[in-house]
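A sample follows:
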Amino acid sequence: MFKAFLLVCISLVCVRGADAPSFDVTSIRAHAPDDSRFYVKLPAQGRFTATGSVAKLVVMLAYDVQEAQIAGGPDWFAKEKWDIEAKSENGAERSVEETRQMLQNMLAERFGLRVHRETEQRPAYALTVAKDGPKFKPAEQGSTNVRVGGNSISLERGDLVRMTQLLSSALGRPVVDRTGLKGLYDLSLKWDDAPVPEGGVTGLNVPAAPGDDHGSIFTAIQDQLGLRLESQRAPVDVIVVDRIDRPSPN
């Protein structure tokens, strides 16, 4: 069976840069329809790389939001795939926050993206610690890596906020971190069914791996991680897409 995964490497560099920074070089091409590759490297150090990514996922990464926090956009926004290579060549190191701003500027320039923000009361899930406590330990030194399949998440040296972002796609709702856990952890989760079937990465379209011994995503989170999902309504920050066009030529 074809397997695909998302490998994300994050390197945090705390430096200062110019206001409203932009990438020096950006290449955007339509992804070949017969190409099954999918790879995304999170925006960091003045660089962003994506192979086979839908524009909606790029917007999620640029604004650091969950899929359920994006409203609007045309039909192709979450279906058509692109290969993007963007980098800064001036030698200045950029923080994650600066690189996200560079990605926002690229989306505005090349995709004509226009958005506004709203706060809405929405159905959401709160991620909390279960009665017997978490079933994972702090991560050791190394880089942050994420692998996501149709019904699995593997997060190496990541925080719980990142985990809530990954869970949101499978749950179809925003997820709020209320665990109180602030460290970096190795987290692995696999489930058999979820509110969004095959709910992995936005636009990835990876079939769920066969199996029937992990239970629902709600059961798996408690059994495998020692965490709980509690349904509730919560104020959610929403990015509303007012306009987005297919990207301009290179």
